[in-house]
Design brief:
This protein is mainly α and about 210 residues long. It has one domain. The chain is about 80% helix and about 0% strand. It contains eight helices and no strands. Helix 1 packs across helix 3. It is elongated and about 65 Å long.
Length: about 210
């Protein structure tokens, strides 16, 4: 009996196909974990590819979801522990070389204290923030139980969304993938706009008090 055919894949997915075919679920778990723990690897892309393979009956969708979910949660927790154990000391020691003064660090910590749960929830959908949200949460000393709750909820949302997209896309994965990247950019722009709005509101309040 021949193996089920795989849909035609767009460039980024096609490049990862041999890696997934060789290592299977291990590849999914490892790259998703690293992608959620400060290492810029294509974990999200591989998750989508694994879901496409599940749609073609070459992998089990529950297996893909379970492994990716475990990798995402563990990766976020490792980032948190890294930030909690050494992140603040590194910022205090080397931050001035990057323009991160004590005052700016305090403002960042205050923002994350007030909005940390929402940041952790949506972080995985934004490249750059997906790799660093755990470290930021640990550095700003976000409460562990609170972080863990939002970390798990964010992982469920992220894994569920991309797994469903890849699984349902099937042979149309090329078109769906391009559209998804477009909406991811839109989400990034919305997040930047929200941060700017919060900073503007804070500035206006300080001006009124003074």
């Amino acid at each position: 009996m021949t193996a089920p055919a795989t849909p035609e894949l767009p460039g980024p997915l096609a490049a990862l196909a041999p890696f997934l075919e060789h290592y299977g679920y291990l590849a999914v778990g490892l790259l998703v974990l690293l992608d959620n723990c400060a290492v810029p690897v294509p974990g999200q892309t591989l998750l989508i590819l694994a879901a496409v393979y599940a749609g073609a009956d070459r992998l089990s969708l529950p297996g893909v979801v379970a492994v990716a979910l475990a990798g995402a949660v563990i990766g976020g927790c490792l980032g948190y522990l890294l930030g909690r154990s050494g992140g603040r000391a590194l910022v205090h020691r080397y931050g001035r070389y990057l323009g991160l003064t004590a005052a700016r660090q305090h403002k960042a910590e205050d923002f994350f204290t007030r909005n940390g749960g929402r940041v952790v929830l949506v972080a995985r959908f934004i490249d750059g923030l997906r790799q660093t949200f755990g470290i930021i949460a640990g550095t700003t000393e976000m409460a562990w139980r609170r972080f863990l709750l939002w970390n798990v909820l964010g992982a469920v949302l992220w894994v569920g969304a991309w797994s469903a997209a890849g699984y349902l896309a099937g042979s149309n994965i090329g078109t769906v993938y391009r559209q998804a990247l477009r909406y991811q950019l839109l989400l990034l722009l919305v997040a930047v706009a929200a941060v700017l709005a919060l900073l503007l509101r804070s500035w206006v309040r300080r001006r009124r008090r003074s």
